[in-house]
Amino acid sequence: MLRLSKLNKYYKVGAHSLHVLRDVDLEIGEGEMVAIMGSSGSGKSTLLNILGILDDYDSGEYWLGDTLIRNLSETKSANYRNRFLGFVFQSFNLLPFKTAMENVALPLYYQGVNRRRRNQMAMQYLERVGLADWADHTPAEMSGGQKQRVAIARALIGKPRMILADEPTGALDSTTSSQIMELMAEINRSGITVLIVTHDPEVAAKTPRTIRIHDGKIVNALISSQHAISEPAVL
Amino acid sequence: MGLAFLPLLLFTFIVFVCALLYLIGSLPSVRPRGVFSLFGVFFAVILSMFSLDRWGEVFDTIKRNKLRTVLTCVSVAWGIFVMVVLLGLGQGLNNGIRKSFRREAANGIYISASKTSLPFAGYGVGRKLTFNNRDYEAAQGIEGIDHLGEQYFIRGGRFGGGEMKTQKGTKANLFGVNAVNPAAFYLSTSDISQGRFLNDLDIKLLRKACVIGEPVRDFLFGHADNNGHGDGTVDDPIGQWIVVGGVPFQVVGVFHDDNEETARQLYIPVSTAQLAFNGADRLGMLMFTVGESNAEEAAVIKRKVVAQLAASHQFSPDDKQAVRVFDNVEGFAKFQQFFNVISLFVLVIGLGTLAAGVVGVSNIMMIAVKERTKEIGVRKALGATPQSIVAMIVQEAVFLTSVAGLLGLSAGVVFLGLLPKLIDTELIDNPSINIGVGVLAAVGLMVAGALAGFVPARSAAKVNPIETLRDQ
Questions:
Q1: Residue finishing a domain among B295, B329, B363
Q2: Are residues B65 and B178 in the same domain?
Q3: SS (H, E, C) chain B
Q4: Chain A residues near residue B374 by CB distance under 8 angstroms
Q5: How far is A172 from chain B (nearest CA, A)?
Q6: How many domains in chain B?
Q7: Which residue in the set B53, B377, B383 is minimally distant from A81, CB to CB?
Q8: Is A147 a residue whose pLDDT tops 90?
Q9: Which of A52, A75, A98 sits opposite B385 (nearest CB)?
Q10: What are the tens digits of pLDDT across the range B382-423?
Q11: Which residues of chain A make contact with B385, given a CB cutoff of 8 A?
C-alpha cells in the first residue's frame, strides 16, 4: 500500500537545518490499521504531512501504491489527495456554513461530480455513519461525536484507499472516542487502510499495529501493538 | 447594434488569449510559469462562470459575510459613481461650451469695416472704411475659405440686423433685417423649418425673396393676439408677400433658432437690398468658415483676407482698428484646450478614486483570505487544486466589483440624468458619458477586480492545510 524508504526531511530554521525525519523506513500493507505515536516534536506531524502529500521530502522515496510521490506539482498532489486519501482531523474542520450533507459532498465537488449525484452519495455515506436524519443541520447544531462522524463520512466519500486521521478522538469524551474508534475499525474492515496519528495509548491500543516515532526515527515499526500493550478493559 | 456585439467579441477574445497563454504556460519547457498561471486562473474563472456549483460557492461566502460584502461594494460603487459623475460633468461642461459657441459657427471668422487708426499712403487717421462687392470677389480667390458670406448693413453702422418696419396687412412690427448671400447661412446656428433659404438665383436675379424667423411668422401670419383673441392657428407663409421697409418681399422660407433674439429676424438677398435700400455696391461685413483648419491655419487665412482689404482700401496691414475681426476659431481652440485640461484633470481624479476603491477590495479580500485560512486548508486537504482556490477567490472579487461597479455606474448615469433638473446653468449641457467609456469602465472593473482578488488568492493557495488545521 505505502512504502517509505530512507526518507529524510529537513527544515531550515534561520541558518540551521533541522533534521526532522531521519532515514525513515516504513511499510504499511493494504487494509492495515496503524497508529502512529510520538511525543510532540517527534516528527509525527511532518510524517503525516508527507504521507498526506501535503509536504515534500528531501531524500528517499515514498511509494503510494505503484506511484512514486515526489516533486509533484500542486495540482497533481491535489488530485492524488482527492483520489487516494481521506483526512480526519481532531477539530473536525467541517465548513461551518454548509450543512452536513454539503460538507460530506465537498470532495466530490473537486472531482467534478454533479450536484445531484454528489448529494445522493453524501446521503448514502451519512446513512453509513448513522446521521441521515442530520443531513440538513449545520455543524454548529451537532455534538462533537456527530461532527466527527460527518467528517469521517466526508473522508470516505471520495472512495480513498487510505484514511489519514490526525488525533481523531482528541476533542471527544471517552465514550464517544470509542464509538469513533469502532467506526474506524469498521471502515478498516471494509478494506480501507487506516492511519491514525495519536498520543493517546488507549487509541493506539485499539489498532492492530502501532508505530512509535522518536526524534525523527521510527522506533518499533515491526512490533505489533497487540504484543506491546495489553488489551484495555473497556471496549 | 454594432456596439452590442463589442463586449461579446472582447469577451471571446480574452477567453481565447487566456486559454492560449495557459496552454503555453503548461508546456514543460516554459518559464516563468507564474506569469502563465495567472492566465490559467483567468481561464479557470471564465470557465467556472458557467458553473452553477461555483456560483453556489461564491454566493455562500458572500451571504456569510454580509457586512464585508456591503463595505466592498460601497467602496467600489462609490469609486465608479464619482468617476462617472466627474466624467459626465466634464463632458457636460464641454457640451455647454460647444453649445454657446454654436451661437455662431465655431469655425467662423467675421471681418467688418471700421475706422483707420494709423496713417498710411498719405491718408490720415480716422478714415471710415466701407467694403464693397469687389472685396467679396477678391476674397473668393483665397484658399482655405470654406463658405464665404457677405452682408450689407442696410441701416449703416458696424453691425448687421438693423431693425426695419415689417408689415403684413394690418400687422406691423420692427424686426432685424439681414441682407446676406446664401453662404451666410452656414455661419448661423439657425435651421430651416419651412421652405428654403436664399439661393444663388435670388442674388443673381435680385429677387425680392425673404426668409423669416418663426416668431416673425407667428406674428405676421398667426391668428392670436397678445390678449388671447383668435384661435392660435398660423397660416402657411410660403409664397405670401410681406412689406419690409416699404418694399414688398415674398416669403420663401422660415427658420428656427433656439435664440429668441436671433429668431426675430429676416434674411433678404444682399443684391436686392443694395438696390432697394440705396446700398450701391457697399458691404458691411465679410464672414467665412475655414473648414477643418486649426487655429494657426485659420490665422493665416485671416491675415490674407485682411491684407487684401488693406491693399484695396489703402490702409496699413498693421492697423488693428481699420477692420474689426471677430475670430471664433481662436477663442474656440483656447476654450477647447482649457476644457481638455479640465477633462484630463477630472479623469485623473476619477481614476484615482476608482483605484482607491479597487485597493479597498484587495484589502478586504486579503482580510477575508486570512479569515478563511482554515476553510481553505480544509478544501485543499479534500483535493482542491491551488488553481481552484485562486479561481474561487478571484471570481468572488470579480463578482463583487462587477456588481458594485455596475450599481455605481447606473447610479452615476441616473444622477447625471437628474443633474440638469437640480442645477440650472447654461455652462453644463447634457452631462453624460458615452457608451464606449461605459463599456471600457465595465471591462476595466472586471480586470481590476480580478487583479484585486489575485494577490490575496495567491497567498491563500499557498496555505499548508495541516499547519492550519492542527489545533495548537
A1: B329
A2: no
A3: CHHHHHHHHHHHHHHHHHHHHHHHHHCCCCCCHHHHHHHHHHHHHHHHCCCHHHHHHHHHHHHHCHHHHHHHHHHHHHHHHHHHHHHHHHHHHHHHHHHHHHCECCCEEEEEECECCCCECCECCCCECCEEHHHHHHHHCCCCCCEEEEEECCCCCCCCCCEEEEEECCEEEEEEEEEECHHHHHHECCEEEEECCCCHHHHHCCCCEEEEEHHHHHHHHECCCCCCCCCCCECCCCCCEEEECCEEEEEEEEEECCCHHHHCEEEEEHHHHHHHCCCCCEECEEEEECCCCCHHHHHHHHHHHHHHHHHHHCCCCCCCCCEEEEEHHHHHHHHHHHHHHHHHHHHHHHHHHHHHHHHHHHHHHHHHHHHCHHHHHHHHHCCCCHHHHHHHHHHHHHHHHHHHHHHHHHHHHHHHHHHHHHCCCCCCCCCCCCHHHHHHHHHHHHHHHHHHHHHHHHHHHCCCHHHHHCCC
A4: 93
A5: 14
A6: 2
A7: B383
A8: yes
A9: A75
A10: 888 888 888 888 888 888 888 888 888 888 888 888 887 777
A11: 74-75, 78-79, 110
Say yes or no for a CB contact (<8 Å) between A87 and B382: yes
pTM: 0.62
Asked if the C-beta of A52 comes within 8 angstroms of chain B's C-beta atoms, the answer is yes
Asked if residue B430 and residue B347 are part of one domain, the reply reads yes
The answer to whether the Cβ–Cβ distance between A115 and B375 falls below 8 Å is no
CA distance B53 to chain A (A): 7
- CB-closest option in B61, B375, B384 to A110: B384
Considering the domain architecture, whether residues B393 and B446 belong to the same structural domain is answered as yes
B193 at interface of A, judged by CB pairs closer than 8 A: no
- A·B CB contacts under 8 A: 81
Q: Is A138 on the interface with B (CB under 8 A)?
A: no
**Contact residues on chain B for A75, CB-CB shorter than 8 A:** 385-387
B9-13, B109-113, B114-118 — which is least confidently predicted?
B9-13
| Domain range enclosing B55 | 51-100+335-469
Residue A130 Cα, gap to closest chain B Cα (Å): 22
Claim to verify: residue B145 and residue B293 sit in the same structural domain:
yes
Domain boundary among B295, B313, B329: B329
**Quick check: B388 and A90 CB within 8 A?**
no
Q: Which tens digits make up the pLDDT trace of B347-368?
A: 788 778 778 877 877 787 788 7
Contact A95 B380 (CB under 8 A): no
Asked whether residue B18 is assigned to any structural domain, the reply reads no
> What local confidence, expressed as pLDDT, does residue B104 receive?
56
Per-residue model confidence (pLDDT) at position A141: 93
What per-residue confidence (pLDDT) applies to B54? Answer: 72
Whether residue B37 is contained in a domain is answered as: no
* From B280-294, B298-312, B447-461, the region with the lowest mean pLDDT: B447-461
- Lowest mean pLDDT across A199-208, B24-33, B202-211, B345-354: B24-33
Domains and CATH numbers, chain A: 2-94+161-228 (3.40.50.300)
A148-184 residue pLDDT tens? 999 999 999 988 999 999 888 888 888 889 899 999 9
Residues B147 and B285 in one domain: yes
Q: Are residues B64 and B114 in the same domain?
A: no
Nearest CA in chain B to A51: B466
Judge whether B11 lies within some domain.
Answer: no
B53 touches chain A (CB under 8 A): yes
pLDDT at position A228, please?
Answer: 43
CB of A87 less than 8 A from some CB of B: yes
- Are B323 and B387 in a shared domain? no
Could you tell me if residue B28 is inside a domain? no
With CB atoms and an 8 Å threshold, state whether B387 touches A75.
Answer: yes
**Residue A110: which pLDDT band, with cuts at 50, 70 and 90?**
confident
Query: Quick one: average pLDDT of B109-117?
Result: 88
Residue in chain A closest to B464 (alpha carbons) equals A54
Residues B225 and B352 grouped into a single domain:
no
A-chain CB neighbours of B378 within 8 Å are: 93-95, 106
